[in-house]
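I keep forgetting this: the sequence line spells out the residues, with the fold written below as integer tokens. I include a record here:
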Amino acid sequence: HEEEAEKANKEGYSRHHPALPFYTLEEAEEIIRRFSSVPLDQWQDLGHEVKVKYTHNGHILGATYIAVNAGGKDFLFSGDIGRPDDLLLRDPVKPKWADYLFLESTYGDRQHPDEDVESLLVDLVQKTIIDGGILLIPSFAVERLQLLMFILWRLYQKNRIPGIPIFIDSPMGSDVLNVFREYPAWHKLSDPDFKAMCKHMTLVSSYRDTWNTIDDPRPKIVIAGSGMLTGGRILTYLTKKLEKNNTTILLVGYQAEGTRGRKLLEGEKELKIYGKFYQVEASIVHLESLSAHADQGELISWLKDIRNIPEQVFLIHGEMTAMEGFKEKIESAYGWSVRIPELQESVTLL
């Protein structure tokens, strides 16, 4: 945020004078000092007959869903639910009980396509080398970036792609690698594989190194944040590479309405970046099966071990079409009462 605010003030494209970050590094560090860790799967007494429990949900490294016990009822908040058989993370744990369930629905109305991810990446790498261009992969910093690193490293190990330079330009993503290193119990990567994977990539740290990477004439792969093109260093690459026809942009996972990523998927011919418009000459490819969100079938499966009939299921975190399709699916599969709350609606449950 501070880096982007500094750039906005320097180049004068913000509507705010001066442009300010949402928060500073100093503020973030101050908040983190107020955090305390608790063990998984153990009730924590908050007083006033309220308890909470955190359980692994497989979305990203360290992600959990939260059960709140209050007034003799269990309120379960799913958070973002991950996918079974993930290459890096352990499977989400299925809940056993929920009196009230607040459930995400990002992909509630559809299944992820059955895509051959490795073959697609092999083809894109070959195209990049032949074209003498760049394969740009906007990515979320936590788990998605590390998953892409792992898949590309494994393809190299299998001799399916050559030793094309791979740059990781995400300060937060680089920090997350340290978290992977410190918490091996949360993922499946062995220590030797993790070290070999990191050694195979070039981690870009400074903004000056970003420009050095852009100026590097070799065919290359760059993975950078943010995943929906809403900010981050990927935007700097786009200002120089979006208008070149030897650039391929690989969008992985969900692209929310109103984001630049969504606009590219919908065929927009120009993007506004840092106050200027850039023509889209790059090839746009979408790989949906790498999403870290469970699809409809996986969400329905996540519910199947709940032993009681919830008094109410509230669908959240999804576009209206996704929530409506998921509501019908839950009602037909389980016969539960499902509700789509309205914005700013208040509901009394106790």
